[in-house]
Structures are given as structure tokens and as C-alpha cells.
Amino acid sequence: MVVPTAGGNRTPDGQIRVYKEEDVLAPWKARGATNVWMLHTHDPKVADTEEFAKVLRDARAVWFNGGRQWNVVDSYANTLTLREFHKVLERGGVIGGSSAGATIQGDYLVRGAIAGSEIVMTPEPEHEHGFAFLRKVAIDQHINTRNRWDDLIPVIKHYPNLLGIGLSEGTAIVVSADRFEVIGKWKVAIHDNTRPYQPWEKPYYVLSPGDVYNMKSRKIEKYGTGSPVPPPVITAR
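Above: the chain's sequence. Below: its structure in C-alpha cell form.
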């Protein structure tokens, strides 16, 4: 199931935006996907109906396209459809997304403000929460191409219990239970308030492709080829 809703529920002139299923699914079919469908509504009342949500009960994977993440909240928050999204995970399915589709998977909704994506922490209570497919995290994206490396700092300062995950362009984390592996082209920034930092350090550290991270213990379990292995500890005798 491909969800294009982050692309907008309305056009700039206020009209209901219409998505053409063949256009939304074309990139997937070009990659060989055959059993792929679009799921979209602008109306949370529709999303809360059995007729709309039941198609998810046979789904093995859901993908959220990019755009603005608050559109996804407006359509599916507190609905039967959101509960069915979670059930996809509960029965062993996969949920993924790009850009806004990545951020919506976190607990705190980074850049949820209607006024613009440059606002990291929304003043709108209804747009503060993502769908928590990945619990106790805040997810940002485009940290490299849009120079957002530091943008999660105020979020984690305000919500120190959260783990901040900043994703570079063309880079992803593949999550299984409490662990994830970094894949792709570049880097992932980890904002962890429980880790001590030196005064001259940024309050986050960087993972590379191949690195495996445990979100429960908040430790790097394995270094990939792109990360320097920490030197051995040498003590004076």
C-alpha cells in the first residue's frame, strides 16, 4: 500500500487534491512490484470507516511518500486506518517512508507546523505527534543537503527522553525490533541525551552505512566499513 497523502490534501486554491493511482504507483511498477495499491483520503471521517481501512488487513507493507507530514496526521490520526497501520507491523509486515514519510513514523513530529518546514517544533498541539511506528524517537530528514545537522538539538533538549534520528539524503535505517542498520549513501545523526559530550563536541554523533545501533541500550553494536573503529583504551601502569 502506497500512501501519497503527505503530498497535500488540498491544492493552493483550496480544492480537494486528487491523486491519480497510476501516477502514484508508476515508480513501484517500474521496479517490478505487481501487487501494489494506493491508499489515500483527505477526510479523517472516511479513514475511520471499516470500508476504507479493511484493505490494510491483507497488506504486508506500507510506504508513505514525501511532502508535508502534517497532512498525514490530518487524514489518519486517531482513526481505524491508523490502528490498521500498526497491525501491519504487529503481524510482521514492514512500514517505510521517505522524507515526510520517514518523519511520520516517529513519536514526536518534527517540522509538523503548517506555516513551513523550517519550523522544527510546531506550535500546533494537533501536529506534535507522529504515528509512533518507531516509539520514543524524533526523526528528521534531509540533514545533509539542507544543512539540518543541528536542528534536532532543541527537540531533544525539550524532550530529553527521546532519541533523535537525523537522516541524510539517500540514506535510511532498517529497523528490526530494537536495532537498526544504516544503509545508503551518507550518514545518520544520533541525538542521545543520555550520552556524555565534551564541551567542544556537538551534542550528537554520526553513524555510517553498515553501522548497527541498539536503540534500547543506545549503543553502537557493530561498525560498518564507513565508520572508524574506536581505538583501544590504553591505561598507564
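The domain at 136-226 is CATH 3.40.50.880 (Rossmann fold).
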